[in-house]
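Write out the 3D structure for:
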Amino acid sequence: MRLSQRPHLRPLQHPPQCTLPEAIHSTSSITQGAPPVVPATPAPPPSSEPTVTISLAEFRGLVRSLQTLSTAQDSIIHQMATIRAHQDQIIATQTQHTTILHQIQQHLSRQTPLRHDKSAPSEPLVPDEESLPVEQPIPEEEIRAEPSHDPTHI
């Protein structure tokens, strides 16, 4: 059994459209003297993906959208660079302020009469028993002399 080696041609579903780049128009001086060019039957695409045909107006709209997006992206990139520069300034200012605060703390620690060991945990100061005032008993005469005080109910 022998198979035919003839190529199979697909019938065209849509008439082919020729899309011109935006810079070339059918009324331009390049195309005025030349006879109209009819494109050859398009060869099937090398891949199995379907092709999409759009009109020139749609193409121009997409080009305008792409230009708008590109302009917006450039603007955003510029704004981000400006923000980074401001952040760098803020960080430099914070570093200067931190250095100044550290110098002030060192200066103040030299002026205080009591130096605290910063490596040891801070403990509340507990007064020694010698530094506490000794409680003096109140004489009974003073207790009896005060009418608002009842010595039996303390």
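Helices lie at 29-32, 56-111, 140-145.
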